[in-house]
């Protein structure tokens, strides 16, 4: 490897670390800052980087919000994958993954609330839809195992139902046993 390609690799690694710092900063700020106050200025001040650095990584505010959305949903996917690993498709896996989703949202209430508000941003909508569809695809096997007539459509509705429960719990500031029990009833219906 030449010295030139080594320095390019180092620069790429440093750029990736800086991007991660900016996203992590957004997650931290989301705990105390509403969406309309989450500005590039607030992020760079907290992260200790220049505004030019921010805009190098995120040319628009919408690009930053999409990155926050994707980063949060990557975290959700990792957590859910961990708790359902080795489980056969069906009710138990569906509910276990859904409860993990709800718990992660509660541990990151500010981020979840901020991202819920960001769903109204036109440039973020496409990312939200794509992630919801991807998540629904992961649930199709569960609904096939439940012998539903429309497993893909059922999975799409389930994802939106669980997301709504997450928002209600975030607003309430904690788990809602009744809503979680209702999810179980929905999943167990013949």
Would you kindly provide a written description of the structure presented here, covering whatever features stand out?
- The chain has 190 residues and is mainly α.
- 80% of the residues lie in helices and 0% in strands.
- It contains 9 helices and no strands.
- It has helices at residues 3-30, 40-47, 51-57, 61-84, 91-107, 109-118, 122-145, 151-172, 177-188.
- Helix 2 (40-47) packs across helix 3 and helix 5 packs parallel to helix 8 (151-172).
- The longest helix has 28 residues, at 3-30.
- The protein is elongated, with a radius of gyration of 19 Å.
- 26% of the residues are buried.
Radius of gyration, in Å, reads: 19 Å
> How far is it from the N-terminal to the C-terminal residue, by CA?
61 Å
Q: How much beta, percentage-wise?
A: under 5%
* Stretches with pLDDT under 50, minimum 5 residues: none
Classify the helix fraction into a percent range: over 70%
Average pLDDT taken over every residue: 90
Strand tally is 0
Question: Number of helical segments?
Answer: 9
Structural class assignment = mainly alpha
What about the largest sheet? none
Secondary-structure element pattern, one letter each? HHHHHHHHH
Principal-axis shape equals elongated
Task: Give the gist of this structure.
With 190 residues, this protein is mainly alpha-helical. Helix content is 80%, strand content 0%.
Write the layout of secondary structure elements.
Blueprint: H1 3-30, H2 40-47, H3 51-57, H4 61-84, H5 91-107, H6 109-118, H7 122-145, H8 151-172, H9 177-188
Helix pairs in contact: 1-2, 1-4, 1-6, 2-3, 4-5, 4-6, 4-7, 5-8, 5-9, 6-8, 7-8
């Amino acid at each position: 490897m030449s010295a030139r390609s080594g320095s390019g690799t180092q620069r790429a690694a440093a750029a990736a670390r800086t991007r991660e710092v900016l996203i992590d900063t957004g997650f931290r700020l989301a705990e105390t800052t509403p969406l309309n106050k989450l500005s590039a200025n607030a992020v760079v001040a907290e992260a200790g980087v220049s505004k030019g650095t921010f805009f190098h990584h995120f040319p628009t505010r919408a690009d930053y919000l999409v990155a926050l959305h994707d980063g949060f949903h990557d975290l959700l996917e990792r957590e859910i994958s961990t708790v359902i690993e080795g489980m056969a498709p069906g009710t138990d896996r569906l509910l276990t993954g859904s409860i993990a989703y709800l718990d992660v949202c509660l541990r990151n209430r500010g981020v979840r609330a901020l991202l819920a508000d960001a769903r109204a941003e036109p440039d973020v909508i496409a990312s939200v839809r794509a992630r919801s569809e991807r998540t629904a695809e992961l649930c199709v096997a569960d609904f096939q195992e439940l012998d539903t007539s429309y497993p893909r459509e059922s999975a799409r509705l389930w994802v939106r139902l669980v997301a709504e429960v997450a928002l209600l719990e975030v607003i309430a500031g904690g788990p809602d046993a009744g809503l979680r029990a209702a999810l179980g009833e929905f999943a167990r219906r013949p």
